[in-house]
Amino acid sequence: MDIKPNLQFSVLCDDVRREENGKFMLIGLFEAINARHFPATHGMMFIVNRWCKGEGSFTQKVRIVNTKDKSIVFQTEDQPFELADIDRHHTLISRFNNLVFPNSGKYWVDVFLNNELVLNYPIMLKEAK
Question: pTM for the whole thing?
Answer without folding.
Answer: 0.93
